[in-house]
Amino acid sequence: MTVSADPRIDPASVTAIIPTYNRAGYLGEALASILGQTLPPTQVIVVDDGSTDATRDVVARFGPAVEYVAKPNGGKSSALNLGLQYATGEFIWIFDDDDIAEPDALARLVKALQENPRCGFAYGDYDLFTTEVNGRMSRTTVSFPLVNSANLYLALMERSFILQQGLLVRKACYEEIGSFDETLIRSQDLDMMLRLARRYTGIKVEGIAFHLRQHQGVRGSNASRVPAKRVIEGWVKSDRKIIGKIYATHELMDFLPSERGGHGELTNEWRFTALLQRACITARKGMWHESAQDLRQAREIAEKTGKTDLSGEEAAILQRIFDLFSYAPHTFSGAAEFRRALKEMKPSGLRRRMRAAVLWSLPFSIGAVLLHRQYANVWRFLKAYFALATPDAVLRTIFDPAFFRAGLELVRGRRTNTQAMSE
């Protein structure tokens, strides 16, 4: 359902910033979707990061509705930092030059922040789309984790599921936490989102906020071009830098869910859970040495306390290591130390339970890449599965009732998505 403009909302209080570099072929659609909002922003800024194509001409077609700021090529973060200097709005909406906003996205985001003045940002979901040769748009839904606002920071460490195109932030928040990191070629949005989520409360707005375009274009700045086939490598490198800094500066307490941590000293039970959570985050980013270190510390606690099983929460943490949105399968060639730490886990009953939990999501990830015809990734996922699988772990997985329920939900979701896309 489309939300109409609320007369209580001042449209002049919203600035949209679009950094761009050689995307003249897509930029016009992105701008049209922003200017066509049911609640359009009064200030729209395009920061041209040294484009050599027809970007200036595309912006000129929109006349005075769009402010054009040109700069030498320096990367997306530098373009965003410059755009923020020109922003006059109370709220900031950063949008990519190749995506399309849902017509009522801004109205819903602004309404959420005005109704929740203690929140620093509001965000919505997105889907994926490709434009076929005949001009038809093909969309694919994206699954998002169910997260309460208090544990948003932890969830974002695992997976960057809030993107700037679906995010509205109070300008005062950006002013307080500082500029975008210009040393990052990729993952600038994850770095900024983590900084925002650690300091401010966010609010989820239901529904799709924008459509994320899938294409084979080159990413990055002129000095650090990233071909589409190597995008994951760029994300892994940047994410490791971001999470590595968090790993080095945060206390173990920071890796506990909010309702468990934050008060007094960590008990052995809480330390074990926090170590598994941190091991999950680092493994997902391909930081196998750090993940193995945490598994070894968890082993010491288990041996000292006689722990022989996992809680439901602990099993769920380990089950997320190899899900479809993890970089773990793509970096698994470097996981020898992690595999040894898992193999050396004691007591043996706990080791078997942990191995089954780690293995749990890989069959679904393999099925998903096959369904989406991402054949280049199938072998990576299979190698991880066979390297970790033992007869006991496989049996524990396939006879887990939750495994069958998740499989049925995946099939139903696939059928629903297929039907919706064909209508």
Describe it.
- This protein has 423 residues and is of the alpha/beta class.
- It folds into two domains: 11-236, Alpha-Beta Complex (Spore Coat Polysaccharide Biosynthesis Protein SpsA, Chain A), CATH 3.90.550; 252-422, no CATH class.
- Helices cover 48% and strands 14% of the residues.
- It has 17 helices and nine strands.
- Strands 1, 2, 3, 4, 5, 6, 7, 8 and 9 form a nine-stranded mixed beta sheet that branches.
- α1 (24-35) links the parallel β1 (14-20) and β2.
- α11 crosses α13.
- It is globular.
Secondary structure topology:
Elements lengths: L13 E7 L3 H12 L7 E7 L5 H6 L6 E5 L4 H11 L4 E4 L5 E2 L3 H11 L3 E13 L5 E4 L11 H7 L8 E4 H7 L10 H12 L1 E13 L17 H19 L18 H17 L3 H18 L6 H8 L16 H8 L4 H12 L2 H10 L3 H14 L2 H8 L2 H22 L1
Parallel strand pairs: 1-2, 1-4, 2-3, 6-9
Antiparallel strand pairs: 4-8, 5-9, 6-7, 6-8
Short descriptors:
423 residues; alpha/beta; Spore Coat Polysaccharide Biosynthesis Protein SpsA, Chain A; 2 domains; 9-stranded mixed beta sheet; 17 helices; 9 strands; globular; disordered N terminus
